Amino acid sequence: MGEQRKITTLLLDCDNTLVLSEELAFEGCADLINEIARSKNVPLEQPFTGETLIVEFVGQNFRGMMVSLQERYGFEMTPAELDDYVRREEDVVIAKLKEKLAPCPGVDAVLEKLAAEGRYTLAVVSSSALRRVRASIEKVEQDKYFGDRVYSAATSLPKPTSKPDPAIYLHAMKELGKTAGECVAVEDSKSGTLSGTRAGIKVIGYVGPYSEKEKPKMEKILTEAGAVVIMRDWSEFEDCLAKIESGSV
């Protein structure tokens, strides 16, 4: 048994935690990466699809993916080129999100209840670009719960980064004037869970959007990355939070 915690702040990932955006985003992203591979004469075994990309890069932002791909395939991009592609990827993905985005099942009822109770400060902490995160939460009308407490590893920091770097969680806590002990994070990816854990925050690992076949594997991955409790559905959120507050996890 750990000690009881006075939790004041909930830091929520956006993609596939609040909104079902990963598949849509990775579809748009794959098209662009295949175009880059052609222009750089990168010998891909086969072109990326949204599905193959998501398996490899879930939780990383586009800039992070580009860095990994350059290392893997030994090609180079100038900073200006990379910035241009990052902007283009944002545009492609935002267009897809505005067209088709839906909230994660059950999350809206939880957010509404948390907002009505007023016990916790609610914030979004994402790797994705701020413009994309805002477009996402506005499309599904969740923006009313977060105000200006929306933080992006790609946009909000002096030097852009991506989870699993803990920088964005450290930045969010500093902006909110909170300590790690007062916070709980909700994350659906290995990189996000590592980011929160490395910032000293207790993380609830959320596996809701994964297929039934993938769920057991993801539960293991998120637990190994530091998640203290696993949430299969947003209906379990109160129980998961209570476990952390009571010190039982």
TrEMBL record:
Q: Name one Pfam family in it.
A: HAD_2
- Superkingdom per UniProt: Eukaryota
Q: Which InterPro entries match?
A: CbbY-like, HAD-like_sf, HAD-SF_hydro_IA, HAD_2, HAD_sf, PGP-like_dom2
MF terms from GO for this chain are: phosphatase activity
Q: Which residues form a coiled coil?
A: none
Q: Which SUPFAM superfamilies match?
A: HAD-like
Q: What is this protein called?
A: 6-phosphogluconate phosphatase
> Which species expresses this protein natively?
Echria macrotheca
